[in-house]
């Protein structure tokens, strides 16, 4: 996704924000651009960050932060995604913040996803491994259960999430039952959560060569 397309999607998402909102702040490069644009806009909002990096950027650009203790329900959350299906189900987590992103998303009245058109797929899992966050002790056992998965590393070292956990990348292939597979992973002992986000997105903003368009969940 080029920086120009990222900015186009971020600016379109900014149109969804109003003064007084409690806004969930996603993680990753596209969400980072949104947070910076939100800071420039000068809107009077409070943000709930989904990662330490998102919190750092928000503080840098002057977006005031809050917590679930003070605001247990959010008005809207803006996230990026790695894959988006025609049903607007998602795979997220290449940046490693999937658990906190999912917590923030499920606390929101609306979830808006910002992507470029290359992230649209016919079936989830077609191109992207499914990230699975696990308790480190359980990682070897979960690897055996999943098969065709690997422990994520960064710069030759074990990748550790903001929660202190390990990440496994599971090359599952195209997913038949997105919601069912999400529940199956969640039920595995030692798994904290996965990068499958079924039934979460309210709207997906897609930036591409022909401009920006908004896709809405058909049931809404």
Task: Please indicate the percent range of residues in DSSP E strands (runs of 2 or more).
Answer: 25-35%
Tally the structural domains. 2
Overall spatial form: globular
Into which percent range does the helicity of residues fall?
A: 25-40%
CATH architecture of the largest domain: 3-Layer(aba) Sandwich
Number of alpha- plus pi-helical segments: 6
The strand line-up of the biggest sheet is 2-1-3-6-14-15
Uncertain ranges: none
Based on CA atoms alone, the radius of gyration comes out at 17 Å
**CATH uppermost class of the largest domain:** Alpha Beta
Description of the molecule:
The chain has helices at 3-14, 29-41, 52-61, 98-106, 139-146, 178-186, and strands at residues 22-25, 46-49, 74-79, 83-84, 90-91, 108-116, 130-134, 149-151, 153-154, 157-158, 166-170, 191-194, 196-197, 203-208, 211-216. It has 220 residues and is of the alpha/beta class. It folds into 2 domains: 3-122 and 198-216, Rossmann fold (3-Layer(aba) Sandwich); 130-192, ACT domain (Alpha-Beta Plaits), CATH 3.30.70.260. A 6-stranded mixed β-sheet has the order 2-1-3-6-14-15. Strands 8-11-7-12 form a 4-stranded antiparallel β-sheet. Strands 4-5-13 form a 3-stranded antiparallel β-sheet, covered by helices on one side. The chain is globular and about 50 Å long. The mean pLDDT is 95.
């Amino acid at each position: 996704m080029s920086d120009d397309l990222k900015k186009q999607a971020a600016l379109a998402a900014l149109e969804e924000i109003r003064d007084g909102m409690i806004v969930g702040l996603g993680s990753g490069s596209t969400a980072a651009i949104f947070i910076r644009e939100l800071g420039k806009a000068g809107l009077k909002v409070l943000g709930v960050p989904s990662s330490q990096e998102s919190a750092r950027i928000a503080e840098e650009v002057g977006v005031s932060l809050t917590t679930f203790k003070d605001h247990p329900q959010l008005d809207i959350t803006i996230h990026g995604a790695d894959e988006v299906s025609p049903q607007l189900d998602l795979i997220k987590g290449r940046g490693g913040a999937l658990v906190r992103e999912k917590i923030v998303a499920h606390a929101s009245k609306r979830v808006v996803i910002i992507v470029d058109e290359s992230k649209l797929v016919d079936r989830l899992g077609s191109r992207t491994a499914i990230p699975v966050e696990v308790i480190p002790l359980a990682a070897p056992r979960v690897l055996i259960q999943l098969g065709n998965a690997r422990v994520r590393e960064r710069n030759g070292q074990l990748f550790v999430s903001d929660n202190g956990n390990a990440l496994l990348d599971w090359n599952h292939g195209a997913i038949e039952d997105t919601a069912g597979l999400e529940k199956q992973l969640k039920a595995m002992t030692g798994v904290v959560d996965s990068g499958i986000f079924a039934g979460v997105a309210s709207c997906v903003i897609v930036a591409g060569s022909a401009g920006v368009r908004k896709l809405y969940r058909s049931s809404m």
